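Protein in question kept in full:
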Amino acid sequence: MAGAILTGILGRPLLGAPPVTWESGFYAKAEARIGRVANDSFWSAYGDSALADLGGTARWMTTAVSEPVILDFEVDLTTTLGDTRERMLAAGFEGGADGFGGGNGISSTSDDRRLFDLTWTLAEGNRHLTTARIDRLALTLSPSWGTVRIGRQAVTWGGGLAFNPFDLFNPFAPSDIARDFKTGDDMIFLDLPRDTGGIQILGVARRDPASGSVAADQTSVAGQYQTILGDAEVFALAAWHYGQPVIGAGLSGLAGGTTWRIDATWNRIESDFGPETADYFALVANLQYSWAWAGKNIYGFFEYYHNGLGEEDYAAALEDPFVLTAMARGSLFVLGSNYGVISAQIEWHPLVNFYISAITNLEDPSALLQPRVVWDASQQFQLTFGLDIPIGGDGTEFGGFSPAGLPGTTRGPTSAYCWGTWNF
């Protein structure tokens, strides 16, 4: 039976079992970041105006195949060192101290809520953290009617490019420009394809972070239906997410060479701080277009995002139990209501691309500007150089405001970074 389920999960071959074939790869990333903080920022309350950080990730990936069974296993070793961790710990942001912040693509790897704790802290201090983590451990079965995958894995739904309300499970932050790997969750996933689309169903079991026990009100069960209607694709989402309903609908298509997508969700959320619930609406709409100008290939997109939990008083938002709950679950990254994202990629050379993107709070207004250059130095090695520049006046979201209990404003550092990635 399918290599006797990969010969007893990669044990010795059994007589008559299909052969097991192996594919392995290795990914490594090294990053350096320097930043400067404003005098009125809370960052300055715990040190001088300069920030310096180093970090790295090594990831080993292997796949064992014995048709129709596939086993995926990926483990990574991650380390961070520097001022950002030290100051975030000093400010009391323990949950945010495992990465640099500011669009570096390092997601929180805490397994406090996950079914299995597959993260181990190898070294920890005020200025450094080194962890080992199993981020993929999934068994895939492919019967004639579809696909079943069980274990730690990552699933992405929705067509949002920066914001993605359809993606309920570990979405990237809109400022994450490094999206090589999405953090895995412990889940069961079913894919039931049809001629004009299909159905996907998944279930995620989680623990209550306070008690450590598996809890029904921490679990998610969700389904997505996709079909073709005329010249458009239609999507429908229904979920029972952390004990409350989520309903969504999406539509995508082409118009004059432009790709467009609209996703909307109605969400009910129960606070982690009490039995109260709130209903809110989220929407994302984007346009993508590619063209050539002056002999250069250019790709760009514009995206609008509405956050129904958004507030005008950002300090009050940070005390709102529903905002705090959504942020703790990784489904909310901003405090305001309406945002625009504009991004462009210019191919200066087949091996060198320039990117620039801006995430803008349309009501402040304030923004996070993220220009960068990516050089494909070889087939295995890529270098990225970039900046994160918060823009805005006092009292704005990206310019910085003064919440209660924080010695200064929330204005983030203006920073420059360089990272290199290797794939083997």
